[in-house]
Amino acid sequence: MNLNIGNIGVWGFRHYEYLKQNRPSTVGVMRMNGTLEGLFD
User: Fold this and answer.
1) Residue range 1-41, pLDDT digits in tens
2) Domain that holds residue 16
């Protein structure tokens, strides 16, 4: 999955990286539900 950093900004990208490193199961569930992109809009 590709996230466009231009749409989410620096803080959104940092938040995504934090979730990916510290809560990978949360990121996986949000990807399956299709809600991950909505979090950063």
Assistant:
1) 555 555 677 887 888 889 889 998 888 887 777 776 666 65
2) 8-33
Yes or no: say if 1 and 31 are a contact pair by the CB < 8 Å rule.
yes
Does a structural domain hold residue 39? Answer: no
Predicted local confidence at residue 4, as pLDDT: 55
Counted domains in the chain = 1
The interaxial angle of helices 5-22 and 24-33, nearest 10 deg, is 130
Distance CA 7, CA 16 (A): 13
Q: Which two tokens stand for residue 8?
A: 């989410």
